[in-house]
């Protein structure tokens, strides 16, 4: 059983992340073929007939989102500590 088969519930969320962040896989579009999986449509640039996958992965964007959330949480914590 592959990871994809085990984690089918997560696929819609992963597809949404790839579409919204304009990324493909964790490190890039090569992630899928490297493990024998076809590149999903959520990796394909819109408006093209044949799939032209995004080259960059979603990890850098995910990291930026986490950093942004930590900054906000830290700011709120400081404000609450002052009050």
From TrEMBL:
Signal peptide, first to last residue: none
SUPFAM superfamilies, alphabetized: Tetraspanin (SSF48652)
Pfam families reported for this sequence: Tetraspanin
A GO-annotated cellular component: membrane
Keyword Transmembrane: yes
Keyword annotations of the record: Membrane, Transmembrane, Transmembrane helix
CDD domains: tetraspanin_LEL
Localisation: Membrane
Coiled coil: none
Membrane topology summary: Multi-pass membrane protein
Full protein name: Tetraspanin
Native species: Parasteatoda tepidariorum (Common house spider)
């Amino acid at each position: 059983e592959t990871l994809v088969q085990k984690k089918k519930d997560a696929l819609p969320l992963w597809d949404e992340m790839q579409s919204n962040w304009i990324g493909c896989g964790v490190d890039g579009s090569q992630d899928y073929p490297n493990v024998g999986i076809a590149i999903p449509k959520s990796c394909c640039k819109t408006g093209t007939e044949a799939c032209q996958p995004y080259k960059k992965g979603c990890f850098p964007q995910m990291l930026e989102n986490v950093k942004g959330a930590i900054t906000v949480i830290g700011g709120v914590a400081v404000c609450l500590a002052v009050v």
